[in-house]
Write a structure and sequence with these properties.
Layout lengths: L4 E3 L2 E6 L1 H7 L8 E3 L17 H12 L5 H12 L11 E4 L2 E5 L10 H4 L2 H11 L5 E7 L3 H10 L5 E8 L5 H8 L6 E6 L3 H12 L2 H9 L2 E5 L5 H20 L9 E6 L4 H11 L4 E8 L4 H8 L1 E3 L20 H8 L4 H14 L1 E3 L2 H10 E5 L2 H15 L5 H17 L5 E5 L7 H9 L6 H12 L5 H4 L11 E2 L4 H9 L10
Parallel strand pairs: 5-15, 6-7, 6-9, 7-8, 8-16, 10-11, 10-15, 11-14
Antiparallel strand pairs: 1-2, 1-3, 4-5, 12-13
Length: 503
């Protein structure tokens, strides 16, 4: 079995793709990366005319190189057939002078569905390929969307339990209800007293706690992750960049080989990193526009080369971007440093010790060749929602608005007239109160009444999965402090595997 993946922090820690998917995170706390990524080219000319499923098969077979092609095909089919409200899966629409790729047509109305619909199937396949007989405990911290998408994906999947932690008071009401009403005998949800970074750090600490992992192993239980730190989460996201490009060619917006820009609402850096992977694999990308809100640690990093999380944390109307420690950035550092594992390890140690590190000037130049940093505060995001709806009749959510405005700022700043795509990461109805306020001002506090009113006034239909939540029974009530997260995982893992239905 080819061990084409290694830890960002230690080139000696190798894994096959299937092993990396199962582990989620390397034993030293590093993330799994493919050393020879630049050799894995996708034939661009062959993509126009292909369906989303066909393009996903090509991308996944290329990056998950020890999975048999038939297995990839089966996983893709199970993940996307009849599960999305659009037959295109991620339709591309023209909005003003730009294009928008809608990533919110899945079962939870967020872009995380594209990866989390397929991850359970990839894990099941990897489970069998590696002769695993124990139980896999999926641990996930969420800033809002990953939680529900992961819970839905792993619900009642045999041989797994899924534990999701979210920041108490740090997600929208709809996001919280999506998680706390989750069905499935193998699903466990807990609100953490803290912000997303606290929850994410707590999960990472559990993964790197050797004594805890040893104890779990002795009970034939193994930890893995559904966060984008898991390469099995990241790889499926690469597909929609190639699909968007193929659609642009089909629409005669570009010719094959023309470079395009992608503007991406960015928090944990997974979504935009998938775009970087696509570029390395041959997609003609001009600039990846990294859009930040008030929590602009990435904006500053791109401008200065200094990553400094020591700053005020803001709760904003785009909560999935309220992050100061962007985990997937570690993978980018690996490639920017020329695959220098030791240097990446040193950066991560500095981040852990002081909350800050600074990359070399050469790395900074490479970073800015591929990325442009945008920063949009709440008032500008609200204006963008209003302006785009009034002028184009298109309803943006609070995160996509940040990316849309960042793209407009980039065009003014650079004069670049390349065809550009904004990734729309969530349905506006997941953040109905904030979107309504941007358009019409403050209204009642009932999120579902706002949803109905927003739909009536804009003529945009509420996704079925969101309109049904208000009638769902609450099933998960627990909260914990950061230092109690491990105890919650132990409690969840003690539930008998025999109670979990066959997936």
């Amino acid at each position: 079995m080819a061990q084409s993946y290694e830890s960002t922090r230690n080139s000696g820690l190798k894994a096959a793709a299937s092993e990396a998917v199962l582990k989620g995170i390397a034993n030293d706390g590093g993330l799994f990366v493919m050393r020879d990524l630049e050799k894995k080219k996708i034939p661009i000319k062959s993509l126009p005319g292909k369906s989303y499923l066909e393009i996903a098969e090509v991308v996944l077979s290329t990056l998950l190189d020890d999975f048999p092609e038939e297995t990839i095909k089966e996983c893709v089919s199970k993940a996307y057939t009849d599960k999305f409200s659009s037959h295109e899966i991620t339709p591309l629409v023209k909005v003003g002078d730009n294009y928008v790729t809608e990533l919110f047509h899945g079962p939870t109305s967020a872009f995380k569905d594209l990866a989390l619909s397929i991850l359970p199937h990839l894990m099941r396949a990897a489970y069998e390929m590696n002769d695993i007989t124990g139980e896999i405990i999926i641990l996930t911290a969420t800033s809002g969307d990953t939680g529900k998408a992961a819970l839905e994906g792993f619900k009642d999947v045999k041989g797994t339990k899924i534990v999701v932690f979210y920041p108490l008071g740090g997600v929208s009401k709809v996001q919280e209800l999506q998680m706390t009403s989750q069905e499935g005998v193998n699903t466990f949800v807990c609100a953490v007293k803290g912000n997303f970074d606290d929850a994410q750090t707590g999960v990472k600490n559990i993964f790197t706690n050797e004594s805890f992992n040893k104890e779990m192993g002795e009970r034939n239980k193994f930890l893995s992750s559904a966060n984008s730190i898991n390469i099995g989460r990241l790889v499926p996201q690469v597909a929609y960049y190639f699909y968007s490009y193929a659609r642009l060619v089909e629409y005669n917006a570009i010719k094959t080989g023309d470079k395009v820009n992608f503007a991406v609402p960015t928090g944990n850096f997974g979504n935009i990193l998938a775009g970087y992977y696509a570029k390395v694999m041959g997609l003609p990308v001009n600039k990846l526009i990294c859009a930040s809100n008030e929590n602009n640690v990435l904006y500053d990093f791109i401008k200065t080369g200094v990553y400094d999380k020591n700053r005020e944390f803001y709760k904003t109307i785009s909560p999935s971007m309220d992050i100061l420690v962007s985990s997937n950035l570690e993978r980018l550092l690996y490639y920017l440093s020329g695959k220098d594992n030791e240097r990446v390890r040193e950066y991560m140690e500095r981040l852990n010790a002081s909350g800050r590190y600074e990359i070399t000037g050469e790395m900074g130049e490479k970073l800015r060749e591929d990325f442009y940093g945008g920063c949009v505060y709440m008032e500008e995001a609200q204006k963008t929602i209003r302006k785009v709806f009034e002028e184009e009749g298109y309803l943006l959510d609070t995160h996509t608005a940040v990316a849309y405005k960042s793209l407009e700022d980039y065009k003014i700043d650079t004069g670049d007239e390349s065809v550009s795509v904004v990734l729309a990461t969530a349905s506006p109805f997941k953040f109905a109160g904030s979107v309504y306020e941007a358009l019409y001002g403050r209204t009642k506090d009932d999120e579902f009444a706002i949803m109905e009113e927003l739909s009536q006034k804009t003529g945009v239909k509420i996704p079925e999965n969101l309109s049904e939540i208000k009638n769902k029974k609450i099933r998960h009530f627990e909260t914990c402090a950061v230092d109690e997260m491990e105890a919650f995982v132990t409690k969840a893992s003690n539930k008998s595997i025999n109670e979990v239905k066959n997936g």
